[in-house]
Amino acid sequence: MSTNRKPKTAATVAKVIFGLLFFDIAIAPDPEFDAGSRGVAIILGAALLIWAYVPYRRWKMHKQEVREEIERQDREIDDLKEALKKRPWKCSRCGATTRGEICEYCGSPREK
Ligand SMILES: [Zn+2]
């Protein structure tokens, strides 16, 4: 069972609505409901709200983890690009081994 997928919006909304309906039953001024049924209604309502919230929260956290991983990899790529720029190269004009964007010896630009 994949737990990291986005919960279906309709399912989440349905759970919240039914959860709130149970809370509504729990506080209804209907004399037919005794304390026991009101307690059950509160538990069922809370269970439905938790059932709606937990997968949604899990999905949000997973999304955040993926976002952070992408950012981390982007930084890694930037570091590699920087390292590549700093690597010594052989100037095709004067033959010297040099660093940077232009040859330190003859001023020729680095060939890509
Ligand atoms: Zn050179």
Please specify the SSE layout and strand pairing.
Elements: H1 9-27, H2 35-86, E1 89-90, E2 97-98
Antiparallel strand pairs: 1-2
Helix pairs in contact: 1-2
This protein binds zinc ion (ZN).
Residues 91, 93-94, 96, 103, 105-106, 108 line the site of zinc ion.
Describe the structure.
The protein is built from 2 helices and 2 strands. It is mostly helical. Bound molecules: zinc ion (ZN). The site of zinc ion has 8 residues, from loops.
Summarize it.
With 112 residues, this protein is mostly helical.
Largest sheet: 2 strands, antiparallel
Q: Quaternary state, please?
A: single chain
Total beta strands: 2
Percent of sequence in beta strands: under 5%
Number of helices: 2
How are the strands of the biggest sheet laid out side by side? Answer: 1-2
Low-confidence stretches: none
Q: Which class of secondary structure composition applies to the elements?
A: mainly alpha
Radius of gyration: 31 Å
Helical fraction: 55-70%
Mean pLDDT: 92
Descriptive labels:
2 helices; 112 residues; two-stranded antiparallel sheet; 4% strand; 2 strands; single chain; mainly alpha; binds zinc ion
